[in-house]
Specification:
547 residues; seven-stranded mixed beta sheet; 26% strand; globular
Length: 547
Amino acid sequence: MIRIQQLKLPVGHTEEELLQRMAKHLRLSLEAFQKQAVRWEIAKRSIDARKKQDVHYVYAIDVELANEKQILRKVDSKNIMSTNPETYRLPPCGSRPLNDPPVVVGAGPAGLFCGLLLARAGYRPVLIERGQDVQSRKASVDRFWQTGELDPSSNVQFGEGGAGTFSDGKLNTLVKDVKGRSRFVLKTFVEFGAPEEILYDSKPHIGTDILLEVVERIREEIISLGGQVLFETCLTGFCWEQGRLAGLWCSQRGASVRIPARAAVLAIGHSARDTFELLQAEGFPMEAKAFAVGLRVEHPQQMISEGQYGEAAGKLPPAPYKVTASLADGRGVYSFCMCPGGYVVNASSEPGGLAVNGMSYSRRDSGNANSAIIVSVTPRDFGGEGALAGIYFQRRLEQRAFALGGGRIPQQLLCDFEAGRSSAAYGGFDSCTRGERGFAPLHTLFPEAISQSFLLGMHQFARRIPGFDRPDCILSGVESRTSSPVRILRNEGLESQRSGIYPCGEGAGYAGGIMSAAMDGMKVAEALIGTYRMNSQQKMYHQKMYH
């Protein structure tokens, strides 16, 4: 394969113009290129909007040609090179016998991809999930948004697909990937129904409407390969024999059940507070970790798109943004989970507490842009409450937000937040939410240092995006579930000091977002496969399916 990089084309170009530009870079006529090209595919596509008068696409294209060596000798360019994309491969099975199927606790991205790899390797995993299957979960979430009736076990945080299912479905990550895991995750999403554009867009997303279907199909694949997926099944305890794991105690629709297990993956998500308390009581090594809290901010999407793309805004999809600031006091302020054309959603999971998140459907057509603008907090901010101090800090903020809004999403205009007064009406645009909302004095929610850091960040960001600190910018609180406030310690083999337990994903403190969580789930699956060998029954099943 030959990769052509830095291939620039105007917004609104045709496929023929793309082919002509590829041929030109290879010093071929279009006719000669079409005769010699066996196949070609887009490796990456991004939008360069640094100069608003010249917004254009930038491509990297992989081309397979009949005479590649000859062409590479003829073309002398640092942007044209031979390439051999990494193909993801599972490790060979280990030698330690595994008599019971591995159990994966949690069916978010980490748990689903861990389970999928284990199933494809013939281990017939058992996935347990405290929430409902994704379609039943959607019905529970819709009912909550419409009536305020919360199901503490199945909501925006808990259930098949994890918290990312009701989000913008962003699929970018900063995790370094030399083994092809990232590409595997994207290709798997496409295999199960996501659009092919996610394979090459520099800022890929799926949208919650498509994610619902994708996670359901991943589950069906796991089951078709001999795995089990048990919903409304919550981890409540561990069985130990001579210091090693022998099984898990679970609450299943009100009944207590024991699931045999010699290896279990804890992909519990960042909001499983009762499970964190169980782990602390069981003596698992854990520590409090830094995260961030703040508010959702809404702007008209048209304003954001014009600020990012200039006159090209009408020809491009709704624009995202990413903004960061470092303050003199050492705190960081930055955007998180930005949702073009999205909704602010009530993402609560505990009675008497209220947390918000952002969500977009695949079309991103709500009319508003929203993002969390969050301020970094560390264990120094939490108080002296040990490994779970961050959880209690989150809970206090969420209970305060619930009280301020009377159970509805509390909102305030930016100008009123800064002036310390309540808002009475929206300004030049309305809010786009899922869940009831009402005006409340959000300026009383945070400690003064966090509120001031938030305001300093908003004003700094307006230097990059005109109007970002407009007086009628709509604030919603509280954004508290940005990442796990806890890290469950694990060794180089990805195993806890409690033998047989593998902490995994965002909840365990090793990921942040759909992609990195899925990739960490893959890493843990690789560790299990590389350690344990299948028993004879599993091996026969594996041979039947893959040979």
